Amino acid sequence: MEMMIEQFLHLPTTCISDAMNGMNNLDPEIKPLNDGFRLAGRAFTVKMPVGDNLAVIQAIREAKPGDVLVIDSKGDLYRAIAGDFVLGMAKTLGIQGVVVDGVIRDIKGVLALDFPVFAKGTTVAAGGKAGNGKVNVPISCGGVPVRPGDIIVGDADGVVVVPREKEEEVYQKAANKLRKDEEREAKVSGNREEILKYLDKMLQKAGKTV
Q: Does residue 157 have a known ligand-binding role?
């Protein structure tokens, strides 16, 4: 795995979000199908018309091992972008995971794959294959611009997009945020006096008096 990707894999999305001032968080309705799922990888993007998932098949064929499929299906909740059979092929070919502004189907089979899928939920209806759609082009997914090669990170809290040209800067900020959070937790947790001091400090910073 690419070193930068591995580093992001060990950071919580909350810290990455804070490092970007919350500007690149996908729609919070896009969640992992299993809270234990984590992913980090380069975006291989899919732009598809509502209900037409042939471009997803093309993306699975063309993506490199380690890529994350990021699918703009316009938030459609009626037709699935894929089910367990198609997602199983994606896993076998080494794709890191799937993020979709839409839904999948065959939920029990998908969960059995132990393959990170982040979606808005499930449906029963299959997608069609009219042949429209594009892959590896700039898209919008969950209200956030995504370009091929951007870093996608997902965990139980949701999904964030790290622009490729800012990845080193964002990583350093997020890593520093995590370190400070851990230091604060170690100092304050279980300590009544430290908790009161911390709360007073927060209130004073906001211009409130105790």
A: no
